Amino acid sequence: MLSTAYPGLPQYSVIAYVDDVRYGRYNSDTRHAEFLIQSLMVLSEHLDGLNKQAQLIEITQKALMNFIMDSSNKTYDINYVIQTKAACVLHEDGTVDVYEEVALDGKELVVFDKERVEFVPATQKAVLLAQWLNKQAFAMEDKIFMENECTQHLTLYLPYIKSYLDEKVPRVKLSSSESESGTELHCRVYGFYPRDVEVKWIKNGRDEIHSEEAAQILPNPDGTYQIRVSVGVTPEEGATYSCHIDHSSLENPLIVPFETEIKNSHITYILIAVGVIVLFLAFGLGFFIQRKMKGLKGSRQSVSSEEQD
Predict the structure, then answer these.
(1) Topology of domain 13-165, per CATH?
(2) pLDDT tens, residue by residue, 111-138
(3) What is the tens place of the pLDDT at every residue in 55-106?
(4) What is the C-alpha separation between 243 and 247, in angstroms, rounded?
(5) How many Å apart are CA 309 and CA 306, to the nearest integer?
(6) Across-strand partners of 111?
(7) Per-domain residue ranges of the chain
(8) Does domain 171-258 have CATH number 2.60.40.10?
(9) What is the pTM of this model?
(10) Hey, which of 91, 119, 150, 196 would disulfide with 133, CB 3.0 to 4.6 Å?
């Protein structure tokens, strides 16, 4: 939630996930909850209930924002962002874990303690906020909601979104590029799910080559993910390179060898430069000889003319 509204930007918004698959949203502009996955659209009556629930939570979040602003003497002419993250985890044995935290501008303020059923301040400045939340009985309400309704929602949604949650095996494409500094090898891994993956380049089957830039895992429109890991290498005779991918959908790490020969780019540039110089020398020599021949021919013609005179 934003402390002040901006044109075109909802002051309050909610994004709902199962694992890391985004399935629903709500914001203060539309005041209407909606599913983002087509297969969930059949749950129209359930969606009506979610809509009412989201509107009530919006009121609670506004009260939370007001308390934080007033208790910390913050002014509304500067925009602040309150973030609340709540989750329920349903294990295979039927046990449930719940998690909730409140943050201001990305910095954690309070965390929900399931065993004590209360909010615990993460910093000294958040003591008043924790006391206010516990006094309002938010902790008990949140515990009941996440252990009951949240898990019921999860159980209801799973049959409809199972295909989105199934593990998807990564696909791999290797390529290379040349630059003045040498050769770069690129390993693009895409179409995998879930998100967590380890991708690295290995030299001669044992030595890891560390990338100078941090590779980012990016989402695809279909719910899968992609990543590209690039490394700079110096060509060595007999050296081998391979991209290693470790993902939960694979029984064993996937090893893809780079089979195209890596040429010595520096030698290539030198040969090209020498070739260009030789070409220019040959062209210059030919031009000089041609001019010289024309000059001699012109001289002879002028001499003949003088003799005739």
Answers:
(1) 3.30.500
(2) 999 899 999 999 998 999 999 999 888 8
(3) 999 999 999 998 988 887 765 556 789 999 999 998 888 889 999 999 999 9
(4) 13
(5) 5
(6) 101, 120
(7) 13-165, 171-258, 269-309
(8) yes
(9) 0.65
(10) 119
